[in-house]
Prior knowledge:
The structure holds two protein chains of two kinds. By secondary structure, chain A is an alpha+beta fold.
Amino acid sequence: MTRTMTMDRPDERRRLDDMSQGLVGRPLDRPDGPLKVSGTATYAHEWNVPNAAYGVLVRAPFSNGRLRRIDSAATEALDGVVGVFTGEKFLRNPAQGGADEAPVQGTETVQYLGQPVALVVADTFEQARHGAQNLAMEWTAENGVFDPEAQAADAEEQEDETVDQGDLDGAMRAAAFTVDEVYRTPCHNSAAMEPHCSIAEWDGEDLLLRGSYQMLNYNVNELADSLGIDAARVRMLSPYVGGGFGSKLGIAPEAVAAALAAKQLQRPVVVALSRQQVFDMTMRRSETRQHIRLACDADGILTGLGHEGLVSNLPEEEFAEPITQSTHFLYGGANRKLGIDLVRLNRTCAGSVRAPGEAVGMPALENAMDELAEKLGMDPVELRKRNLPDKHPEEDIPFSSRKYTEAMDEGARRFGWSERNMKPGQLREGDWLIGHGMAGASRVNILSKAEARVTMGSDDDGVFATVETDMTDIGTGTYAILSQIAGEMLGLPMERVRTQLGDSEFPKGPGSGGSWGASSSGSAVYLACEEMRAEICQRLSCEEADLTLKDGDAIAGNRKTSLAELIGGGGQISAVGRIEPGKTMKESAQSSYGAYFCEVAVDRVTGETRVRRMTGVFGAGRILNEKTATSQCYGGMSWGIGMALTEELVHDLRDGHIVNRDLAEYHIPVNLDVPQLDVVLLDERDDWACPLQSKGIGELGLCGAAASVINAIYNATGVRVRDYPATLDKLLDGLPD
Amino acid sequence: MQTQLSINGESHELEADSRTTLLDALRNHLGLTGSKKGCDHGQCGACTVLINGRRINSCLTLACMHDGDDITTIEGIGSPGALSPLQDAFVRHDGYQCGYCTPGQICSATAMLQEVQAGWPSHVSTSLEDDVSLSNEEIGERMAGNLCRCAAYPNIVAAIREVAGAGEDA
């Protein structure tokens, strides 16, 4: 049985609200929790694969040019070394998210310092590492291109992103108040705690790859294409992923190298990246230069809005950090100019890092809105509210559910926003300058094609259900929410639902990325259950609307039947659900929204900033699990703190190498950097989004968060930082006496 | 070379390269994969284990240096069905997301609470002499060596507070 739904019209039935089990939305513990806290969840490196050899990748020590020769003789002679591998099938860089095909391949042409060019395989990890450190190479280096802004004249316009509406220059000239500023954000790294790892094992021509990947549906095809084999020969397992944040969207160099070596050695090969290699050869978020122009009348109504950016990537890569993604619809202003230019650099590949686009685009916009509010002498919350368009300002389509105003109002109330000091630099506690700032959050909502299978059977303890999909749980809570949806629809308690993920042989979903996983795979589970409910109705000769499923029983009319009995010993009811995006994605502007309110203390002497408290209020449609959704927002807001204060991937402009390629020098927030965050999730149903009425929340908490910190620093000190992050050196000169 | 390791109360004979870190010995040789490798440089804390009761980054020490030492890993702290109070609190407070740093967080917190009981001051302690009051700031500072990119920090602090019986922060 299969039930397919194409999202062509809003689903106003809101069937989950009619169910009786009471699971969806509740703050339930993750079913995978006991495994994670006891160290028994199996991450990629941790499968017990007998006779596995260890591979260590070797990076190119130059930035651009030709690798003429790898002299492997000395390395091959080392104790335990069983092979040195290189060649045209090696990946230059990981595939972009959803690429579904191999990325650029080959080791002869080197285009960034850190590009993987060889794999040394040995019986033990220590032997392989020693061999890799001693591998000799000959190369011819050529001049490279490392500085994005120096290349701006050669930039490629991203035409899909371009909007030129009305006359922005004229609007700027005629405006009562304007902002015309350039904001810069540096490169970022996802820095997931688990470094990338793959174990490749062949059985004849069939490849089993246990890896740390977010999107198996695409990864299988990317891996097969890279190796030149039939995708039907590839199976991938990724039941636990130690963080992704975009860095594990596409197949990466370690997987292909492991597969090539394992094939030739006729022995399983495990390849894990070192932390430095994660920085060098996975993905970076592009640095951005963002020119924002705002024009408004005396009442603060926007008449013009400009958001033009410069980002970078390697040659041949299509990805360009989509910084204007939410700017297209968030605020009005009839005269608009938006665009993104892409320059080609010899730097590590640029790709998706958590919330590509809004993560850095929203802070720039929200800083500019703060600057405009100050010029107007207006509450920045009020300025935003005055500029919410009735419909998409560039396309003639309505918004779906939009809780932006509610998020700002609720956040302001909880935070005590009205009691803040308005004039910068006036509030002190000893040497600490205290400031308050706010910013809005927006992240586009996406539904993707997904399938899932749900099967109900019975055992000695009664009826149970199994959910199967190749969807992954990268910490997002997939195990929890899919079990909750199935349990809710089928009337089963949590402990009677088992969700199995991360096996490419299960029905295919879109994977974890773009915050679409929960709504997409969740809808597939929901639809499978709807089909199963129809089957139960048929067996009971009742109407769907009259059926109640709860605690393992089916109640219809005044009759109660145990589901175990209905299914029968050894019997089962099973269905596949399939959701497909449809017209609602094109006919409405869908986004999740929110607002941040932040209090910082800046040391008057040292310029050190501490975030003292931060409130985030978010509207993301139906919340599927309040606990895991809140955790996602904690994570996003913490990323915002890191982005505002410390995170900066530094490239040496002489040769493009990454200077701070480890966790001691690339500063992600530590426990002490993050206060007890205050997160509120608004009650919302977005009928346009999916049959669950839910929207993405995994990235929302980050999209604008950094701006609230930077705006608070301005309020504390009177210093506007437009060059992220706000390190001490950028504040010291401007601090009040 | 041969090393005798006492891990979670069980004796193990390890035959490994002298370059093998304690972390790699646990993960690659002894099948104890609960201790995680996040950086291999003592920068992230995911590999934290207890040696003779003290927390240590197991990636920064060689296995052969621990002949006869008493080592506790996450597997020795508790297992599904028999979780330690901290492990149980991490589940209820959602003190993790991806789960990769979690064993290190829990090993670290286990030792940290003992350090507090023993009266050790930290960088943020207001006094070197007095008993430590387990404020959020004290927990944050003492757990700052255990990175969590998912940033479950607020929940990690809440879980630790509960187990320490510290109540709400003032």
